[in-house]
Design a protein that fits this description.
The protein is of the alpha+beta class. The protein has 2 domains: about 70 residues; about 70 residues, no CATH class. About 35% of the residues lie in helices and about 25% in strands. It contains 5 helices and 9 strands; from the N terminus they run αβββββββααββαα. The strands form 3 sheets. A 4-stranded antiparallel beta sheet has the order 1-7-3-4, with no helix packed on it. It has a 3-stranded antiparallel beta sheet with strand order 2-6-5, with no helix packed on it.
Length: about 180
């Protein structure tokens, strides 16, 4: 079976839907639970929830997949274990569709995704604590810039350069 365009783009940018699973303990006062995945850094689809011992399922609540948040229809008893299963990815299907529409091809859509990630990369930091621990996440922007360059070159190779020397010479008479 052939891959859809969205699946091809996900393969190219290495953003497949991933399985997530986690357990949270209810505190007896809250009815909402935030998953480890979800906005602002990822998107959730195909989620389910269940409470151990109570036999309760996700039919008694609602999912906000974009925020990665589950809201039960009521407060869950204190110390009840709530189990969540879900699929998540960095980009939602709507975003992949937008990249494809703007980028026209799989490589163009991948380039759009890389450019989106570059905006996030500007927020990367380099720091060091007094005990000598170091953190340097500034290489992300450099790596994304290399990916942007490689994808741009691939698009030019696939499509070919725009115009040519004959169009340049012909159009020179239009300029004074």
């Amino acid at each position: 079976m052939a891959l859809t365009t969205a699946q091809q783009v996900r393969l190219k940018i290495q953003d497949p839907w991933r399985f997530g699973e986690e357990d949270q303990i209810a505190n007896g006062t809250a009815s909402a639970f935030k998953m480890q995945q979800g906005a602002p850094y990822s998107n959730i689809i195909s989620a389910s929830a269940s409470v151990y011992r109570a036999g309760w399922s996700a039919t008694g609540g609602t999912w906000d997949n974009a925020l990665g948040r589950f809201e039960a229809s009521g407060v869950i008893d204190q110390n009840e274990s709530v189990h969540f299963n879900y699929l998540w990815a960095v980009f939602a299907d709507d975003e992949i569709g937008h990249f494809t529409a703007v980028g026209v091809s799989v490589n163009g859509a991948a380039l759009e995704a890389v450019q989106t990630l570059m905006f996030d990369a500007w927020k990367r930091a380099r720091w060091q604590t007094p005990d000598g621990t170091q953190y340097d996440d500034t290489r992300a922007l450099d790596n994304l810039a290399k990916m942007q360059s490689a994808l741009s070159a691939q698009i030019v190779q696939d499509v070919g350069p725009a115009g040519g020397f004959e169009s340049w010479a012909i159009n020179q008479g239009n300029y004074s």
